[in-house]
Design a protein that fits this description.
The protein is mainly α and 83 residues long. It contains two helices and no strands.
Length: 83
């Protein structure tokens, strides 16, 4: 009866140093660190853009509310002056 391990590789494949892993572990970590840095940078840029848009939107709402209250005030004063 032939035994095989759960990884599907033979003993020779496990100990074959003639074909090392294509990317050493240190380089893999560095690349993922670069990706994280790029992602953080893009998220930061996106956050700044979102903050600017929210600020502009808030200013527009504030101005619109102010104009709306002034319009109501003017209408009320016109009604009270006529009577």
């Amino acid at each position: 009866m032939e035994r095989s391990n759960s990884f599907g590789t033979s003993w020779a494949d496990q100990w074959d140093y003639s074909n090392p892993n294509p990317v050493p572990p240190q380089q893999q970590h560095k690349k993922s660190g670069d990706a994280v840095g790029k992602c953080k940078k893009k998220m930061g840029e996106g956050f700044e853009k979102s903050k600017a848009v929210a600020s502009t939107g808030f200013k527009k709402v504030k101005e619109g509310t102010s104009v709306g209250f002034q319009w109501i005030k003017d209408k009320y004063q016109k009604r009270t002056r006529k009577h």
